[in-house]
């Protein structure tokens, strides 16, 4: 019996440091998708980069507990291909078609999954997919390029410099120290989850912070510290995106480090609705949409800010495939704004399909 359900390919896992977080996000999306509307195929990418197709017990140790994750190899190793008008999931062993996909939902946080690589692969297949396209994903991941675009748009960001491995680092460091005030944040340009990030209080710490960041990327950014609250805002949409009510990450100590994000309890407290004046909420929402558009995003994005005591707002960054775990801010802030989890998933999928529809209307060749 032919079904008129939309066939969703949920892609998760992957080769980044956020592999496990991705499995937790995927678990929530898998359970949130309305089965009256969707037929869902699970596509897990293992840490080596092999794609697997399987049932939920292949990917989560205890299917009732999102936290116990695994990506085991008894799921079929597959690849995805286009065969004429259809996108097929192909069993690598015998070349048989095991599923067909209408739209992909990649929830692959971090390197290769969020930075335009996977998006490029899906574009090559002419497949609709959730979240920003190649450019928005790549720009959103690269802190150096993103900051340059934000500056050009006249948006406030903290003062920063960029260093590339192998360039005249010693001379540049003296220039940077003369220009920026300590403490200085040092970050790999293309990473997430605070990996490789440190806060340097003096020159000695700065040198080791630079060394550490260069272990993760050949390009790093150094930026002046902004003292302020950390405010986040969800953005959803294509041409006319909407912004959620802002939330806040309250930190008991230090900065929002990798440990504070994933292990340490009680260090970071996410507050779904930040205590802010109406005027500030409006300003943040307007800015969030502006950032989203300046950074070429579509579908979704979580924009993070710093808010100082003087009510000055600095843009920190955008996350183009934000967390979708049970406690993640992106869906929670939208829920606070009146968009329920299931409704959010529906909207994301329809935004992906609409974007592809518009793309397909474009002329590809010119005939005089
Ligand atoms: N310029 C800055 N001033 C103050 N704190 C910062 C600054 N840059 C980063 N931080 C702190 O470090 C955390 C991680 O930095 P961020 O740029 O968001 O990296 P990631 O992409 O890994 O999340 C922020 O959430 C914040 O706590
Ligand atoms: Mg961040």
Look up the CATH topology of the largest domain: D-amino Acid Aminotransferase, Chain A, domain 1
Q: What's the name of the CATH homologous superfamily of the largest domain?
A: ATP-grasp fold, B domain
Question: Radius of gyration, rounded?
Answer: 21 Å
- Strand residue percentage: 25-35%
Class of secondary structure makeup: alpha+beta
Low-pLDDT segments, ≥5 res: none
- Total domains: 3
Write down how many β-strands occur, each being a DSSP E stretch of 2 or more residues.
17
Instruction: List the ions, cofactors and other small molecules found in this model.
Output: adenosine-5'-diphosphate, magnesium ion
Number of helices: 11
Largest sheet: 7 strands, mixed
Q: Globular, elongated, flat, extended or rod-shaped: what is the shape?
A: globular
Mean pLDDT: 93
Key terms for this structure?
32% helix, Dna Ligase, domain 1, alpha+beta, Rossmann fold, globular, binds magnesium ion, 11 helices, 368 residues, 3 domains, 27% strand, D-amino Acid Aminotransferase, Chain A, domain 1, binds adenosine-5'-diphosphate, single chain, 7-stranded mixed sheet, 6-stranded antiparallel sheet, 17 strands
Tell me what you see in this structure.
A hairpin with a 4-residue loop joins strand 12 and strand 13 (242-243). It is globular and about 65 Å long. The chain is α+β, with helices and mostly antiparallel strands and 368 residues long. The chain is 32% helix and 27% strand. The strands form three sheets. Strands 6-5-4-3-2-1-7 form a seven-stranded mixed beta sheet. Strands 12, 13, 14, 15, 16 and 17 form a six-stranded antiparallel beta sheet that branches. The mean pLDDT is 93. It folds into three domains: 6-129, Rossmann fold; 159-224, ATP-grasp fold, A domain (Dna Ligase, domain 1); 229-358, D-amino Acid Aminotransferase, Chain A, domain 1 (2-Layer Sandwich), CATH 3.30.470.20. Magnesium ion (MG) is lined by residues 304, 317.
């Amino acid at each position: 019996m032919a079904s008129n359900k939309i066939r969703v390919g949920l892609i998760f896992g992957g080769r980044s440091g956020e592999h496990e977080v991705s499995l937790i996000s995927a678990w929530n999306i898998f359970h949130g998708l309305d089965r009256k509307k969707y037929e869902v195929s699970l596509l897990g990418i293992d840490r080596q980069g092999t794609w697997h197709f399987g049932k939920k017990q292949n990917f989560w140790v205890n299917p009732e507990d999102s936290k116990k994750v695994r990506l085991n190899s008894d799921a079929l190793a597959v690849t995805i291909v286009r065969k004429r008008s259809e996108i097929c999931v192909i069993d690598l062993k015998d070349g048989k078609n095991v599923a067909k996909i209408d739209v992909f939902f990649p929830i692959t946080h971090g390197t290769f999954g969020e930075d335009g690589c996977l998006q490029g692969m899906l574009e090559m297949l002419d497949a609709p997919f959730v979240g920003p396209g190649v450019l928005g994903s790549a720009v959103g991941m690269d802190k150096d390029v993103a900051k340059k675009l934000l500056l050009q748009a006249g948006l406030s960001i903290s003062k920063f410099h960029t260093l590339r491995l192998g360039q005249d680092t010693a001379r540049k460091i003296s220039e940077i120290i003369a220009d920026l005030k300590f403490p200085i944040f040092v970050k790999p340009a293309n990473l997430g989850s605070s990996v490789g990030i440190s806060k340097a209080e003096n020159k000695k710490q700065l040198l080791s912070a630079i060394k550490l960041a260069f272990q993760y990327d050949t390009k790093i950014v150094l930026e002046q510290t902004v003292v302020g609250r950390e405010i986040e805002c969800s953005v959803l949409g294509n041409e006319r995106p909407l912004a959620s009510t802002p939330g806040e990450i309250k930190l008991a100590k230090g900065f929002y480090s990798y440990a504070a994000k994933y292990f340490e309890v009680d260090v970071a407290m996410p507050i779904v609705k930040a205590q802010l004046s109406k005027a500030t909420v409006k300003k943040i929402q307007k800015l969030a949409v502006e950032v989203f558009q300046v950074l070429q995003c579509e579908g979704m994005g979580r924009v993070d800010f710093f808010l100082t005591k003087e009510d000055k707002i600095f843009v920190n960054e955008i996350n183009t495939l934000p967390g979708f775990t049970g406690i993640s801010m992106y869906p929670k802030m939208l829920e606070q704004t009146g968009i329920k989890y299931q409704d959010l998933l529906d909207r994301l999928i329809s935004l992906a399909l609409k974007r592809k529809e518009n793309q397909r209307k474009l002329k590809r060749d010119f005939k005089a």
